[in-house]
Every structure is written in C-alpha cells, then in structure tokens.
Design goal:
heterodimer, A: 396 residues, mainly alpha, 4-stranded mixed β-sheet, 5% strand, B: 296 residues, alpha/beta, 6-stranded mixed β-sheet, 4-stranded antiparallel β-sheet, 34% helix, 31% strand
Amino acid sequence: MRSTRNVLLVARRELIERARSPMFIVSLVISVLVIGAVVVLPTLFAEGSRQVALVDAESTGMEELVQAEADRVGVTVEVSHYADIAAAEADLEAGDVDVALGADQEIVWSAEPDSQLETVVEGALFMASVQERAAELGLEPSAAAEMLAPADFTVRSLEPVDSDIEARRLTAMVAMVLLFMAIAMYGAFVLTGVVEEKSSRVVEVLLARVSPRHLLAGKILGIGVLGLAQVAVIAGAAVVALRLTDDGTIELPGISPGLVALLLLWFVLGFAFYSTAYGALGALASRTEDAQSATGPLTAVLIGGYFFVFITVAGEGSEWIVRLATLLPLTAPMAVPMRAATGELPVWEGVTAVVLMLIAIYGMIRLAGRMYTGAVLQTGAKVRIREALRASSDVE
Amino acid sequence: MLEFDALTKQFGPVTALDGCTFRVQGGRITGFLGPNGAGKTTAMRAVFGLVRPDSGQVRWRGRPVSHRERLRFGYLPEERGVYPKMRVRDQLGYFGRLSEMSGTAADAAADRWLDRLGLADRAGDRVEVLSHGNQQRFQLALAVINDPELLVLDEPFSGLDPLAVDTMMELLRELAAAGAAVLFSSHQLDLVEDLCEDVVIIDHGRVVMSGRVDELRTTAEHRTLTVTVRGTGAGWLPDVPGVTVLSESDGTARLRLQRDTDPAEVIRVAREAGEVTAVSYQPPDLSELFRKAVQS
C-alpha cells in the first residue's frame, strides 16, 4: 500500500503546513470570535425588565393593569411608586426608569417613546379609564372585568402552516451560503497549492517520488480534512455559544444533528468535485497571475450555480427547475442542503442527487488526473486543456 | 548499473531522443555532455518517469526502472525546487518519507545531512530565509536524503560559487566511493574532466561518444601541438600534411595533428622560422573531444 502511504504523507504535509500558517490560525480565531459574537452579543444587549414609575397611591390597581398589559405585549416591567411627578422625572432623566405615569393620566418619556412600552402604558391607561367609566355607569367591578375578558375564538388555515418556516428558510439560506463559501475558499486553497508547487518547481522533485495522481489526491484530501475541521470548529463554537447563553432568547429551528451531518456530507461532495477541477485547471498555469484566468470559467460556474440556486430554490422557481438544481452536480452541493433545511426535499431526490454527484466526482477525478499529469511539468506559457490531455501520456 | 537502451522520444515535431543508448556504472561518476537541446534533460527525466519514452527502456541492475527502483534514486533537476515556506528539517524528513523511509529513519537522515552540509543550526528555519549558498546545499541534501544508489543531477554546478563547487565535487566523489552510480550533466568541461571517470556525449538525441575519459583522449585520432616561436608572427606556419591550424596569436600556434603525423616534422619547420620557446604535444582535452564529436 505504497500509494496509500504517499497520498497520506502528502495530505499530512498539507494539513500541518497550512494549519501552522499564521494566516490560517488568525482566520480561524476570527471566525470563531465572529460566531461567538453573533450568538452571544444579542443576549448581552437583550433588554431586561423595563422600569415604570407610577405617581399614585398604591391602592389604585394601576400596577396590576400595567403588569397585565405587559404580559399581553410580552415584555417584563418593574413598577416603582413615587410620591410626586418631580421625583419620577428626576429618575427618568437619570435613566433609572424608562417611563413615568403621572397621577393625571400623563405619560412622560425622557425623549423618544419606546414603542413596546408605549403600548403597555397606553393600554393600561385605557383599561383604567374603561373601568372608571364602567363604575360611573353603575357596573360592579367584577361585571366590568367579565365584560372586558378576551374573546374566545379559533383560528384555522386552509393549508398546513409550518410555524417555523421563516426561521427554517433563514437557516437554509445560512447553510447554503456557508457551503458555497467553504467550497469556494477551500477550492481556492487547492488551486494556489497546485500553482505554488508548479511555480516553485518543487513539483519535479516531488514527481520523481510520487505519481501526479497521488500528489493531487493527497493535496485535495489534506486540504479537505482541514476544511472539514474548520467547518466543525465553527459549528462547535456556535453550539457552545448557544449553550452558554441558553436562555431561550435565540432559537434556530431546523438545526438538527441530521442537518449538520448533511451539511458536512455535502461539503465533502461539493469540495471533492470543485477542488479537483480547481487543481487540474491550476496545473495549466505556471504563475499565480495565470491561475486566475485558467480557473475563471470554473469560478463563474460556481458563482452562477450559487445565484441559480438562490433564485430558483430560495425563490419560487417552478418544480422542475428546482429539481434540476437539486440533481445537477454543479448546483447540488448548494441546492440539496438548502431544500433539506426547509424540509422540502423528497428522499428519492436526495438519494439520486448523491448518486449523480458521486458519478460526477468520479468522472472529474479521471479527467483532472489526466489534465494535471499532462500539464504540471510544462512550464512557461499557459497550457491548453487539450494539450494537457494529450501530454498526459508523455508521463509515466 | 543504469542502462539507457535505445530510448526515443518525440515531442510533436521535435525529436528529443533518437535511439539514445549508454550505461552508467556503479561506484563511478559519469559526465553527461551535449549542446543545449541535445536531449540530456529528457533522458534524465526518463529515469524518473517524468518522461515516458516512445520506445526503448531504462534499466537498473538489469530490471526496467519502476517506482520501486526510483525510491533508491536521488534527483536534482535543473530547475531547483523547494517549498520555500516549509522548515528545513521538516522538508528533508518529508522527502525522506516519500522515499519510503520510516519516520525515524527519515528524521535521522535529515539530521545527518544537515550536519554534514553545515546546516545543523538552520534546521528550524524556513527554507526561504536561507542564504543563496545554503539553499543550494539544502537542495543537494534533498536529492541525497535517501542515500541513493543512483544519483542523477541536471546541471548541478550551474550558479554555484567556487566554494560550493568544491563541496559538490567532494560530495559526489564521496557518494561514488560509497558505491553509488552518479550521472550529471554540465557545460563546464574542465569540471567534468576533473571529476569524471566516464563521459557520455549526446547530440540530437543520439550518443555520439562515450567511454572512459582517459581512453577517449589517448585513442583520439588527433593530437594537439602547441608551439611558440619568437618574433616571426604567423609567417612560419607549416604546410605539413595532416596538420590543421586551430588558432594562432603572438607566435603561439595551436595545431591539430593526425595521430600518425610526426610532431618532429612540424617542430623542424618552426625552428627554421625562428627561436622555439615552448612546445607541448598532448592528447586532445575534453573540450576538443566534445567539439569534434558534436561537429561531425
């Protein structure tokens, strides 16, 4: 199993050298910090209970009305009582309370009203005045309360409603963008790795000891494992941050272990397909400047596929066009996880997509192996694809 | 023993190798000469499978060379290549492992060669920060990390300063003395003459001359006679059959004589023309052999 050993040696070098590079470490630390910040910061800035200053005698029942309205709106408030409006305004100015209710139906803000709190205090004042008018009309307080009790009604929709659908769509969108970026980024790593070996001429020394196919395979494997590790670290950071701030303020519907596994699977599939193509096209170039033009069409296909999926799957594309995006290997790595996250992917389509993807990867490996072999030792001008395929028989 | 057996290789309209046949003996240093474009690099690359010949075979100890044999070979290509950002010792260890050495053996070999080439204190540095001369030493270490039985070097002396040339020569002698077969190409014929027991001269993809340097010289069909005559200018040059004038300046003439032409006849003519102050009569040196082989 000499060939396996060589592939693993090459992969190990890629992994170690890249993981050691300061750029990689910095980017990893930054992405973990960004994820942590995205998850943790909202909970730090989440508004706690709001302070309402009441200028009244404690027995008026106003506090109960305010609390009842706060429950209805879904905010928490704390009520404190003041003897006169001047004291309440002083605390309002100092920022210790958010709103003051004067004895004469007056609402005082420090500046702009807070819309939620506004609903609460206005509702409470309205209820107070309704109760007052009911008493004037001779109604018992208990009868008045009964009259004001919420109506009892039922709601139904003609089609089944997924209450989480908006959140799941968001999750799906994030998953697709994440996969697109990971495939593009790690595909670019393979590309620059190939071009660097060719431009530094180290490839000739290497190929005296390793076959071109093993060299390419090891490079893709090593960088792929690194990519997988980075995706896992970022996902892990997100999970840990969610746990640390587990107060129910953030919910990510649709994120299940199954979806995470699917994301990792499609990262592997999409990366295998695109990075192999990037490696083969990179071998056509002798210099970094040429690499951009050599891989331009492939990058265009990847970005085009991204927008295609974005428009058809995320938008309301017709059924067959969505199915096309799901089954086509160029777009499947982005379309499948997205549809799976929204729960709209039939099992047979998912399985067919994986099978077609595997066939496409096999074909790409065959083609890329020949191109890489034929082109990687030819220095100077950019090698044409056809020349590379023809020259592949010149090398053992 | 490495055998090139009737290698041919065509790159489109260009014939790179055209029935190239020669041998490289173990324990000896063989110089591989030829004008630019003669096919030297193609022949060397064929040893490592970097070029697949259209026909013919490269054999090592009688067996066709395959990946297994190549693990015991060392190769220094003309375009030297390293991973500039990889650390010195790591990189040597990596190439050792790729040559099927165990991790411990590869690391031990890395330390040994770093020590031998005076790079031990740079083991942890990135290759790109080494001085030019140290990078050349490093590339050499990369080629020999597996203590090769066959070492193939394409233009190993180009761009070396005189001290590095000495190091390289010493190392090649050492490896050959330990039994390795060494093949290297060069345009520096004086170096080749100093270093090599054997030479192979190739032109248009064919071997035009090969053998032991001293035998090639003594069996050459001509000799070089250099005569200095004071104060006569070019007027004295002899019109003797079998004598060709190679060059003349300030009364010193370099003449090519057929091997059976008697130099005494030429010297007699010279003495008649004036006072002869210096004479040398020698077999042709390597550069003359080379020119003759490649011109014909």
